[in-house]
Design a protein that fits this description.
The complex is a heterodimer of chains A (242) and B (162). In chain A, 45% of the residues lie in helices and 21% in strands. With 242 residues, chain A is an alpha+beta fold. The chains are: A alpha+beta (242), B mainly alpha (162).
Chain lengths: 242, 162
């Protein structure tokens, strides 16, 4: 019996329905792709379960081969398309786009909002998606919001302060914009730095320049590679002639 | 690549005879390469050393090295109380896993399209067709999913390394 038939038999004996024969990878020895027909039980659970597929992969691995499962669900695309349509139809003022995909435990929905999304709106969207998918016997794994604001986080601000310190607000804004972040206003940046100062991550000198505190430095950590922030800062200082 | 894939998809829907199968499997191939090149572009921006990786290494890096880096960064961000960054990193971790899974799926069907001519493309009504039960519409949509996940990964990377 050929190895490929042997492996196919092994998989089928475990109750898994294959779409045709296994496919041998053209470039990697002993690597196979199994296209598996997946169905949903009345409670929405996947059959065969991911646990079962993992167990089979482990058995095949012990036989000296690598197996990748490609799951096939006949109504897969329809579920995603309809989830997208339901959400856009229900929240036309708030959603720019929806990207539903299959995760490991159900459907994962990514939402691109038109503006900042309050928590209660997100909850309403989650509930709508959950109800709709439940009706189709699918489960909602999670809902995520894609960030289109591109604002620097606290860590990104601290990184920039470390690189430039001591740095005045205007120079920090220029540096953050150079790093491709959006800064809504000087007031926004000043407020952000004020929060960092009050929580002891930065200090502000009498001249209005910001530097990291020991807590700020420790929170960022360092590195022993070419990306080490200490090396990057030393090089930047040398460049500036400091 | 996406445009070429779509052109081949349209040609396959119009064509008759044996050439129809060839157009159709070539469409799958081009859609796969579209995915591959988009991820390669992303890799090159993250780490120049990842720009020349072989196809087979893509899921390994996404699920391995990249996820490990994000998890380490998540630990630091949690410790520093930067929960906004934690959210961005968690989205990037999920995006890396989803991208790895898509890459495996797309690569698997590309192997069938290129090396198993005996596996014929199945044509159904309304100009739709599938290979190994993977619909061409799904392959056509890979680009949108990839763009979303790439954006999520790049966004987290920028917060950490800009």
């Amino acid at each position: 019996m050929r190895e490929i038939d042997l492996l196919s038999t092994q998989i089928r004996e475990n109750g898994v329905v294959l779409v045709g024969d296994l496919v041998r990878d053209a470039t990697i020895e002993n690597k196979y792709y199994a296209f598996v027909q997946v169905t949903r039980r009345a409670d929405g659970a996947q059959n065969p379960t991911n646990y079962k597929l993992r167990t089979i992969s482990d058995i095949i691995e012990r036989l000296g081969a690598e197996l990748i499962f490609v799951l096939i669900e006949d109504d897969r695309q329809d579920v995603l398309v309809n989830t997208k349509a339901v959400l856009i139809r229900n929240f036309p003022e708030k959603i720019r786009n929806v990207f539903p995909t299959f995760g490991s435990r159900g459907v994962v929905v990514w939402i691109e909002p038109k503006g900042i999304l309050p928590a209660h709106d997100l909850e309403a969207m989650r509930s709508t998606a959950e109800d709709f998918l439940g009706f189709l016997k699918f489960s909602l794994e999670d809902v995520h919001v894609t960030s289109s604001e591109n604002l620097p986080t606290k860590t990104a601000c601290l990184n920039a302060v470390r690189f430039m310190a001591p740095v005045k607000l205007n120079d920090l804004r220029v540096e953050l914009v150079r790093r491709d972040f959006h800064i809504p206003s000087d007031e926004w940046l000043s407020h952000t730095l004020d929060k960092l100062r009050k929580t002891d991550y930065v200090v502000r000198s009498k001249s209005g320049a910001y530097s990291l505190t020991l807590l700020g430095l420790r929170s960022l950590g360092s590195g022993k590679n070419r990306r080490s922030p200490d090396v990057v800062r030393a090089l930047a200082m040398a460049k500036r002639g400091a | 690549m996406q445009a070429v894939g779509y052109l081949l998809q349209i040609e396959a829907q119009k064509a008759h005879g044996g050439v129809r199968d060839l157009y159709a499997r070539s469409a799958f191939n081009r859609y796969y390469y579209g995915v591959f090149l988009d991820i390669r572009r992303m890799f090159a921006g993250l780490d120049p050393g990842w720009a020349t990786l072989a196809h087979k290494a893509y899921p390994e890096v996404l699920d391995g090295k990249l996820t490990k880096k994000f998890k380490e960064a998540r630990r630091k961000a949690t410790k520093a109380g930067d929960f906004e960054l934690v959210d961005i990193i968690e989205a990037a971790i999920r995006a890396s896993a989803a991208l790895a899974k898509l890459m495996e799926r797309a690569y698997g069907i590309r192997v069938v399209a290129d090396y198993l001519p005996e596996e014929l493309v199945q044509f159904s009504g309304a100009g739709r067709f599938s290979l190994k039960s993977i619909d061409i519409t799904e392959a056509h949509n890979w680009e949108v999913d990839v763009a979303l996940w790439v954006k999520s990964i790049q966004s987290a990377w920028k917060q950490l390394h800009a």
